Amino acid sequence: MTTPTKLGFGRGYDERQPVIVLLDTSASMARPTDRPRITELNRALADWFGSVRSQGRLRARVEVCLITFGSGVRVFEPSGGALVPAPPAADAQLFAPIDRLIRPELTADGYTDLLPAIRLALELAARRHRELTAQGLPALRPLIWLLTDGAPTDGAGRALSADDLAADAELLRQAEERRECVFFTVGVRGADRAVLEVLAPKATYMLEQLDFGEILQFLFHSVDRVNPEDTAASAHQQVAHGAELQAAIAGLIAGEL
């Protein structure tokens, strides 16, 4: 019989793959009024958390941290099962095995204050990788996924330009070069691709044809497409190939309906 670690993993599954998911919960996610995107995302998250329990190999090694951003940044605290304001310092206990996560109820409000969420994600990724390594566990590079339907703003709602994003884009590139993370963005229904590509020039995917459930499954299975020995550029290429295939399949299915 295996003895669980404090994070809930069995000893037979030592390899760890941290995944940080940044979810846009700004006011635009409450549209359209007859079919709010936030409602679709809540439903998709519930289905996603349920489905991964049947996928043993990935379930055993993937640990997830959920971050939301609107007018403020919040993070899911596994011990309390709720979204809480972002802590002043990175905390490894914000990661949990994916099959132990309980879906938080997301609500849409406020602006799209993205940059503080990215900075928190970078801090969490670097710290979690260091902690796993210090514990003697094989720690794969954390993957950071951003899912948004709009364009970033500052805390007062002012739209950010490419120049405004340049410093944070450089932080992302440096973190990837240090092998502290691999960063991806997914834009849906109205996202500003040009702005997102400032942050992820080779890893921005516009998946308007996919619903949130399909996007979350794509995100989860992309873990298998990232070779721990690859550079960030190679990882981006592998995941991009998967995105192209999934979008093409979705287009074919839509054409047959």
Describe the structure.
The protein is an alpha/beta fold and 257 residues long. 39% of the residues lie in helices and 16% in strands. It has 7 helices and 8 strands; from the N terminus they run βααββββαβαβαβαα. It has helices at 37-51, 56-61, 114-134, 162-177, 193-199, 212-221, 232-256, and strands spanning 17-24, 62-69, 73-77, 82-85, 96-97, 143-148, 182-187, 204-206. Strands 1, 2, 3, 4, 5, 6, 7 and 8 form an 8-stranded mixed sheet that branches. Mean pLDDT is 83; it is low at 1-12 and 252-257.
What attributes characterize this protein structure?
257 residues, disordered C terminus
Tell me briefly what this model is.
This protein is of the alpha/beta class. The chain is built from seven helices and eight strands.
Protein topology:
Layout: E1 17-24, H1 37-51, H2 56-61, E2 62-69, E3 73-77, E4 82-85, E5 96-97, H3 114-134, E6 143-148, H4 162-177, E7 182-187, H5 193-199, E8 204-206, H6 212-221, H7 232-256
Helix pairs in contact: 1-6, 3-4, 4-5
